[in-house]
Amino acid sequence: MKRNWNVLIGAAFLMATSAIGPGFLTQTAVFTAQLGASFGFIILLSIILDIVAQLNIWRVIIVAKKPAQQIANQAIPGLGYAVATLVFIGGLAFNIGNLAGAGLGLNVLFGTDVSYGVLTSAMISIAIFIYKEAGKVMDFFTKMLGLVMIILMSYVAYTSSPPLSEALIRSVVPSKFSFEAVLTIVGGTVGGYITFSGAHRLLDANVLGKENLGAVNRGALSAIGIASLMRILLFLAALGVISKGDILDFQNPPASVFRLASGQIGYKLFGLVMWSAAISSVIGSAYTSVSFIKTFHPSINRNNQVIIIIFILISCVSYLAVGQPIKTLIFVGALNGLILPISLGAMIFAAYKRNIVGDYKQPLSLTIAAIVVIILMAWMGLQAIAALTIF
């Protein structure tokens, strides 16, 4: 039981820290500046949508005892390959931004060149996957970094003195709303590869079957809780800064939140938070993205850790060649939001096929809630594309 609990917490932190990357920090700061206290409503709505997506996907994967791409292929032949391709490409794009964020974090902390920081962070990530017990090291590393980020973010939120009463009121009765913000925030928390990271980690640790559903529910909810807590703390920190009339620097919105809230100390804390968020996301993105292709050929599965290392190296080289602007981080979050209806729809369809889940009975309430999320996310995605607001 203790082993299962450790694995569940590790899976929860892997999912949460996969979500809490440079894009997560940037998106939260940008949308707080745009929507003010009303962004609290977007966060509340996104938490509900996140929980529905996470519970449905984790439960189906654990009951089916197979990774998402195999489940999707069984549900609709060829769909698993399509989902795996979307997730893999999205994960690679995100990882370029993650490494850029890690380089920026080290630049803020030590004044090193960003490119040097990217290389250093890539090497640290690769070292984890070279180790024989990579899963255990990954669990420990993401847990420690997750706790560091929450503690530091709590301090910055406190020093910014946000208007808590206004935030609470506008979280229920918003004065502004943005479909783009919902799409991007949900996509940045449970879109693309992120929502599968924890469930695929449980598969690798053999936490499987209906007998583990109660524990899996707790793990999924813990993952959303950790990511949401970080989102709320950053929102409050940014709101405190904005409410005083300060203007964020849109060349680096989250850095200016930390600096304006806590001065030079805050700026250094931003460097540590950014590096922690970025490198944990590098690990989660690489691990999960490769988990989507390793079942397609025995040689991929045999050389799984080697391919993860190559994935990180490609991300590193791509950054050094192209770079990663702020707008792309927001765009990729929105792209992940568009992937979510497809991947969640595949899991719900599979939940009612006995050749996939056996005698498992999917709760009707979860299915209905998932259908609502699929429709909402698909509709908002189409609205965003039509308006070209995410480009």
From TrEMBL:
Entry GO MF terms: cadmium ion transmembrane transporter activity; manganese ion transmembrane transporter activity
Entry-linked InterPro entries: NRAMP_fam
GO cellular component, one term: plasma membrane
Membrane topology: Multi-pass membrane protein
Subcellular location field: Membrane
Entry's Gene Ontology BP terms: iron ion transmembrane transport
UniProt keyword list: Membrane, Transmembrane, Transmembrane helix
Transmembrane segments: 35-58, 79-102, 114-131, 140-158, 178-199, 220-242, 269-293, 305-322, 328-352, 364-390
PANTHER family assigned: SOLUTE CARRIER PROTEIN FAMILY 11 MEMBER, TRANSPORTER PROTEIN
The protein's name: Mn2+ and Fe2+ transporters of the NRAMP family
Organism: Olivibacter domesticus (Pseudosphingobacterium domesticum)
Lineage of the species this protein comes from: Bacteria, Pseudomonadati, Bacteroidota, Sphingobacteriia, Sphingobacteriales
